[in-house]
Amino acid sequence: MVDNRYATALVIACVLSILATVYLSVSVGTQHWYQYSSPTVRGEANVSELRSLYEEFMDGEFDEKTYSDTLFRLNGTVGLWWRCVSVPVNAQWSKEPGSKIMRECRSFSLLEQFTPKYKEPGNHNSGEDMVRTYLWRCQFLLPLVSLGLVVLAGLIGFCACLCRSLSPTLGIGVLHLLAGLCTLATVCCYLAGMDLLHRVSMLPDRVDGSLGWSLYLALISSPLHMMAAALLVWAARSHSQNYYRMTAYRVA
């Protein structure tokens, strides 16, 4: 029989775990990790240049410099799996008040996720930038590891419920702690990678960058997983100590 305190802790931990997993899943699947704000399109030459960038972004081969420049100039957003730009619906590409704006997105393929980054984006002769390359790969792999750990913890917890046992609770708590650390590491890798990108690819004049809500969702999910882990570990340890005390009392 489980004490009410332990049962309450387990229920709260389950709720926190579900919330954290939903937040992380939404974060991974959306593109608003980082967003750029660019000035209004003015002049025919500027319009032609931006239309050329947009066409290359949508139909051209994958190139970090090309898609980065397009994101800078067309109010782009970029996430772990998606990169998007905002373009006017009308053929003249004018951003007059009231004009409609549509968002066009392209996904990063699995091969593109593992494409090396170069010291000078777009220049393959400049040499591979190992730090940026592995930061990008880590920010892609770590959230998948985090979700995998939570799924594994959920399966173990389901089996424990069927067996009416609290024994695996400590292990489930450790899995949640590792998931929270992986999520936190994802955010850190992403921020470090974007900072290094902006050092080698300077933002154009009057273009501002800011963090998006998808990144904040991932940042929120990390402490939620850790709080769930703390509750699970506390319940497991307290129940174990109480069980041994009761056993010793009965023996005595």
UniProtKB/TrEMBL annotation:
Q: Which GO terms describe its cellular component?
A: membrane
UniProt keywords (A-Z) are: Membrane, Transmembrane, Transmembrane helix
State the Pfam families in the record.
Claudin_2
Q: What is its main location?
A: membrane
Q: How does it sit in the membrane?
A: Multi-pass membrane protein
Transmembrane feature ranges:
7-26, 140-163, 170-193, 213-236
Where does this one sit in the cell?
Membrane
What InterPro entries does the entry give?
CLDN1, PMP22/EMP/MP20/Claudin
**Full protein name:** Claudin domain-containing protein 1-like
Organism field: Gouania willdenowi
Query: Gene encoding this polypeptide?
Result: LOC114480755
